[in-house]
């Protein structure tokens, strides 16, 4: 027996049966091949009468003849040879068992008495299908329940879903020459996947494309199909595709589905309600614990008080569980739902879900079940204080689907917005943990837009979303945009919640941190002071949050001081260098004043023992010593060691590189530039020429240049410059250090 599997609705079981008949005939031409449709007793009796006429069974043309019994007797007779009987679409277990309402229908059609058209059925229908050594019966059915009334479970052959490769092959074959066009393979693959690889849907789509060609291509059909549920429904209602399909069966896949829905509703309404709820979830990974609340709370307008007794509650839970299992079994029998390896998780075809939603829309029940879906998902989705990432990961696909299922009632709108926020918050945090900050930012922007649209810009949940977006922007260095959002959020909270509300103080702290990152330490520290006072007043001085606020304030204050010191240090280094330049240009008073200023500031900022402070002090001491020695020697000496150093410096300056020369020009005061240039020119004319080895000709000894080494190595230049004069000057004069000490 062929039975369509749970995951292969419209999997082509009748087409497989037809193919099997052809192969049987090719292998054994003398074998009789018989076919009967079992969708209802009327159709089945009609086909049995046609079989009796084709086989020329005696009495087969008699209107009162019992066609079932006549065919049954012929099949049992071995003299008639080998045969194959196909009973197609035996989906209704009632038809196969000929009981209940089906018996009444049979009495009307076949006859209510022996004198009326051969009499009523004397036995169940499947008993007219005799077991035989020289014949075989092949039955196709959509439901496992009907199949198990005819054969043992091990004799059922499930029709598995068509795989992707076979689906593409079928679609190419149905498209014909159009499938050979360049660039079609990718579109064929996408369309086959969009239609869940269902043979009937593929044939229907190919027929629609070919009928509308050349104005419609595979790409255009796929684009229209993906536009909306309404457009997909219109395309899938196109009745074309299978010429060999039974004439009484619709070629439009959605119409066929909806006929089945009506049938399920008639035999088990609660199963149809369960299907109505499940059609809004993502097609995969539907958890059992979200499938509740689909039973009608009361029937026939009756209401009953709920008994809270534990024993009665257990009994009610047991009854509900049993009812759920029965409903699920019904849906599984009709291949609407499949159970995954995890027995508490279910799957559906996307086309089944689409057809169910359109069916609900035609029944004016779409809004009701959509809101039930949102309510269930909102109740089970973890909030922002998440503790279970696996749970968030499991439910997020369903929350993502819910983004397109906007409800209408105010209550459901608020649940919908809260659910989307919780799901998006969890996902955004996960993206941040993976350093996917741009994706996290996009998620927060979507959530904020939804909250503003549904709840309003001033709603507390909207403000939380805005705060999260600003934090993400700040982490990406987008400080200006983040500051705008922080300030707007803070102003709204102050107006609505007050200046000392914990949420307001949290926004104050966030803005303070951002301003510190932007270098606005004054305003940042003022905000931290405000936050510290507010926390101390609200939760006490010793509360961990208050202490944390004070700690953050001290960290920002130390950052402010450190940066101030660094700036002042850079400025003082420039002052010290300028003092050295003035000394080179013999502007001794200006140089001394700058050295004094630099030393005093270095001593204040860096401390007395800092290397830079000590170095500045030594430079100032050397200059003071030289000036004293120059003053005492003016009467008896024409030049001092310092003068000699200056001459050497002027000699060397004529050979410095253009870069160094430009640097000296920039660093020297503007007033001294002309004098500097004149001195260098005079020195160039009077200086003895050097050979290519750097030695002076005619045995002259070259002086040690004052500025040797790289221009930027100021410390090394100073040491070479002063080395020859420090020793003699310190022996003749009292050091500047002793003078300062006194």
Features of this protein?
single chain, 742 residues, mainly alpha, Rossmann fold, 5-stranded parallel sheet, 3-stranded antiparallel sheet, 62% helix, elongated, disordered C terminus
Mean pLDDT across all residues, rounded?
71
Instruction: Report the principal-axis shape.
Output: elongated
The major pleated sheet works out as:
5 strands, parallel
How many beta strands in the DSSP annotation? 8
Determine Rg (CA atoms, Å): 47 Å
Helix fraction bin = 55-70%
Neighbour order of strands in the largest sheet: 2-3-4-1-5
Proportion in β-strands: under 5%
Q: Please identify, by name, the CATH architecture of the domain at 2-96 and 124-159.
A: 3-Layer(aba) Sandwich
Q: Mind telling me the CATH class of the domain at 2-96 and 124-159? A: Alpha Beta
Discrete helix count: 31
Task: Give your account of this protein's structure.
Residues 4-10, 99-121, 241-245, 247-251, 297-308 and 649-742 have low confidence and may be disordered. The chain has helices spanning 13-27, 41-54, 67-76, 93-97, 101-110, 144-148, 164-175, 184-194, 199-212, 218-225, 229-236, 253-267, 269-278, 310-333, 350-362, 366-380, 389-402, 410-433, 437-454, 460-475, 479-496, 502-517, 521-539, 544-584, 588-605, 611-633, 641-653, 658-667, 673-686, 714-732, 736-741; strands at residues 2-4, 32-37, 83-88, 135-141, 157-159, 286-287, 338-339, 345-347. It has 31 helices and 8 strands. β7 (338-339) and β8 form a beta hairpin. Among the domains are: 2-96 and 124-159, P-loop containing nucleotide triphosphate hydrolases (Rossmann fold, 3-Layer(aba) Sandwich); 164-251, no CATH class; 477-541; 561-632. Strands 2-3-4-1-5 form a 5-stranded parallel sheet. It has a 3-stranded antiparallel sheet with strand order 6-8-7, with no helix packed on it. The termini are far apart. Residues 722-742 have a biased composition (Polar residues). Residues 301-321, 634-742 are annotated as: Disordered. It comes from Epicoccum nigrum.
């Amino acid at each position: 027996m062929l039975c369509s599997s749970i995951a292969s609705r419209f999997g082509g079981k009748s087409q497989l049966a037809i193919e099997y008949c052809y192969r049987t005939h090719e292998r054994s031409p003398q074998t009789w091949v018989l076919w009967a449709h079992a969708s209802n007793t009327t159709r089945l009796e009609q086909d049995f009468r046609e079989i009796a006429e084709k086989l020329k069974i005696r009495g087969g043309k008699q209107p009162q003849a019992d066609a079932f019994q006549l065919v049954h007797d012929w099949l049992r007779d071995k003299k008639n040879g080998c045969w194959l009987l196909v009973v197609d679409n035996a989906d209704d277990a009632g038809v196969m068992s000929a009981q209940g309402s089906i018996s009444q229908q049979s009495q009307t059609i076949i006859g209510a008495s022996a004198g009326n058209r051969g009499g009523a059925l004397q036995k169940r229908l499947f008993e007219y299908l005799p077991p035989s050594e020289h014949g075989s019966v092949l039955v196709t059915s959509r439901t496992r329940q009907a199949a198990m009334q005819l054969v043992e479970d091990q004799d059922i052959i499930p029709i598995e879903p068509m795989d992707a490769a076979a689906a593409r092959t079928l679609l190419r074959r149905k498209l014909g020459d159009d499938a050979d066009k360049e660039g079609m393979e990718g579109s064929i693959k996408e369309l086959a996947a969009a239609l869940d690889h269902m043979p009937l849907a593929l044939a229907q789509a190919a027929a629609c494309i070919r009928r509308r060609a050349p104005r419609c291509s595979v790409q255009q059909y796929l684009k229209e199909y993906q536009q909306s549920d309404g457009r997909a429904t219109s395309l899938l209602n196109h009745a074309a595709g299978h010429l060999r399909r039974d004439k009484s069966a619709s070629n439009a896949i959605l119409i066929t589905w909806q006929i089945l829905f009506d049938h399920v509703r008639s035999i088990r309404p609660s199963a149809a309600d369960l299907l109505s709820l499940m059609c809004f979830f993502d097609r995969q990974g539907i958890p059992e614990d979200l499938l509740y609340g689909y039973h009608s709370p009361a029937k026939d307008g009756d209401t009953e008080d709920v008994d809270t007794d534990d024993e009665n509650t257990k009994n009610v839970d047991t009854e509900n569980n049993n009812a759920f299992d029965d409903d699920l079994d019904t849906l599984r029998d009709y291949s609407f739902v499949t159970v995954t390896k995890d027995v508490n998780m279910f799957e559906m075809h996307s086309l089944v879900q689409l057809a169910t939603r359109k069916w609900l829309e035609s029944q004016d029940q779409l809004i009701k079940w959509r809101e039930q879906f949102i309510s269930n998902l909102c109740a089970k989705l973890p909030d922002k204080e998440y503790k279970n990432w696996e749970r968030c990961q499991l439910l997020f696909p369903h929350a993502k689907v819910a983004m397109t299922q906007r409800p209408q009632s105010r209550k459901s709108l608020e649940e919908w917005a809260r659910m989307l926020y919780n799901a998006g918050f969890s996902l955004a945090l996960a993206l941040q943990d993976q350093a996917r900050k741009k994706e996290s930012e996009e998620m927060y922007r979507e959530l904020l837009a939804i909250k503003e649209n549904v709840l309003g810009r001033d709603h507390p949940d909207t403000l939380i979303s805005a705060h999260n977006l600003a934090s993400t922007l700040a982490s990406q260095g987008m400080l200006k945009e983040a500051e705008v959002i922080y300030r707007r959020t803070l102003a709204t909270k102050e107006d609505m919640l007050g200046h000392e509300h914990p949420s307001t103080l949290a926004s104050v702290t966030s803005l303070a941190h951002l301003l510190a990152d932007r270098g606005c330490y004054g305003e940042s520290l003022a905000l931290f002071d405000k936050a510290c006072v507010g926390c101390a007043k609200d939760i006490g001085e010793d509360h961990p949050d208050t202490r944390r606020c004070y700690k953050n304030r001290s960290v920002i204050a130390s950052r402010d001081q450190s940066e101030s010191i660094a700036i002042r240090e850079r400025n003082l280094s420039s002052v010290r260098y300028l003092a050295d330049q003035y000394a080179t240009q013999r502007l001794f008073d200006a140089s001394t004043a700058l050295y004094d200023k630099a030393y005093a500031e270095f001593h204040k900022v860096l401390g007395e023992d800092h290397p830079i402070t000590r170095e500045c002090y030594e430079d100032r001491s050397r200059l003071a010593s030289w000036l004293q020695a120059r003053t005492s020697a003016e009467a008896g000496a024409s030049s001092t060691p310092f003068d000699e150093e200056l001459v050497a410096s002027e000699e060397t300056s004529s050979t410095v590189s253009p870069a160094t020369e430009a640097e000296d020009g920039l660093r020297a005061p503007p007033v001294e530039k002309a004098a500097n240039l004149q001195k260098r020119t005079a020195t160039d004319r009077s200086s003895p020429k050097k050979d290519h080895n750097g030695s002076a000709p005619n045995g002259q000894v070259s002086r040690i240049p004052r500025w040797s080494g790289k221009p930027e190595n100021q410390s090394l230049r100073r040491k070479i410059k002063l080395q020859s004069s420090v020793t003699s000057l310190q022996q003749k004069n009292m050091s500047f250090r002793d003078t300062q000490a006194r």
